[in-house]
Amino acid sequence: MKADSHVDVPVDERELGEIEAADLLPYRELIKSGLGGIMPAHVIYPKVDRRPAGFSPVWLKEVLRGRLGFDGVIFSDDLSMEGASVAGGVVQRAEAAFAAGCDMVLVCNAPQAASELLDKLKAPVLDTRRAERMRGRGALKPLRSDMRYASAVAAIRSLSV
Fold first, then answer.
1. Would you give the DSSP letter of residue 67?
2. pLDDT at site 48
3. Treating both helix axes as pointing N-terminal to C-terminal, what angle do 90-100 and 111-120 enclose, rounded to 10 degrees?
4. pTM given for the model
5. In 10 A of CB 76, how many CB atoms?
6. Is 42 a catalytic residue?
7. What is the mean pLDDT of each run of 10 residues along the chain (161 residues)?
8. Which one of the listed residues 42, 49, 77, 78 is annotated catalytic?
9. Which residue in 1, 64, 79, 123 has a CA-CA distance of 20 to 30 Å to 102?
10. How far is CA 58 from the centre of its chain?
11. Which residue in the list 6, 8, 12, 71 is annotated as catalytic?
12. 77 is catalytic
């Protein structure tokens, strides 16, 4: 798979077993450690489901929530990306994401589409239990105490005019 979902519709031809054996291992560990939120990509895995992962109840409900036991918030990937175009217009994209199991949808780079979505979508109410999990369990190291974070912030500030 070489396509970039920002500008194309990527397809990954691997079987679920191969994906589970490698790609899902970090998710298993992070979920055990209290991962509070996750964002599936707009990648189609046709040997698992014909829909991109972020629009797929197979991926979100069966694999992520069922097999992996994830109980945090699922955010859609940016619905203005080309990889999301297979689901229709922005409202249809949001509806597909919610139906698949997303708790929140994102429209990051298309202000007009965001306005349309706010005007037309009847969004479900966020499960407050999942939203509370965004606070974490304290098992994940706070970002501010990570020296790499402090170094990155200093580097960015040095570039500011």
1. I
2. 96
3. 60
4. 0.77
5. 25
6. no
7. 66 94 90 89 94 96 96 94 92 95 92 89 78 61 68 75 50
8. 77
9. 1
10. 14
11. 6
12. yes
